Design the sequence.
């Protein structure tokens, strides 16, 4: 039981393919596991912390949001060690939240597609779809980039109104860049 993380040279090749070709179809987690430089990594109970602002990937929990319900929002929030901020990397390529057991998922509906830039991230019942498949790629800075099954990168939204160092900031899909910007770098560490 472990997840695989590619090393810098493989990460550069994978990220370049994702950024330049907008597809990583050939670089599935299973394919990456056969490349040199892949190493096993702990599976359960990790915090995923954005390198830019130091905030945790967080399943929103309040009076109207519950991590056990489909469609719950995923955001950035100050790390507090709660189950809503604890994640499991599974052998099938999914990442599940410890609070509700749902998968990290790109929103798919009439106005969103997991192949579109800026598609928001949510929790959804695990179904094995590509928008729930993630690969952890080691960046040149020694952090992790999380690439989904469509080749887009987990991104802390950064623009005139969003700042990855503010609680409640959006998490979305975006193109990967070389070098990887800090809002697309994540520290994956035991809780």
Sequence:
């Amino acid at each position: 039981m472990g997840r695989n993380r590619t090393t810098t040279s493989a990460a550069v090749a994978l990220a370049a393919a994702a950024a330049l070709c907008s597809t990583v179809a050939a670089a599935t987690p299973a394919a990456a596991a056969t490349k040199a430089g892949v190493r096993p990594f702990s599976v359960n109970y990790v915090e995923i912390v954005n390198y830019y602002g130091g905030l945790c990937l967080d399943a929103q929990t309040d009076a109207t949001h519950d991590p056990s319900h489909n469609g719950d929002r995923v955001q950035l929030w100050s790390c507090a060690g709660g189950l809503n901020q604890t994640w499991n990397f599974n052998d099938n390529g999914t990442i599940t939240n410890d609070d509700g057991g749902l998968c990290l998922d790109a929103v798919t509906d009439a106005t969103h597609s997991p192949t579109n830039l800026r598609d928001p991230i949510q929790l959804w019942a695990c179904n094995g779809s590509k928008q729930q498949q993630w690969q952890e790629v080691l960046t040149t800075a020694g952090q992790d980039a999380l690439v989904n099954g469509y080749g887009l990168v987990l991104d802390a939204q950064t623009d005139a109104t969003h700042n990855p160092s503010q609680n409640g900031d959006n998490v979305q899909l975006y193109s990967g860049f070389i070098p990887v910007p800090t809002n697309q770098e994540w520290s994956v560490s035991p809780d």
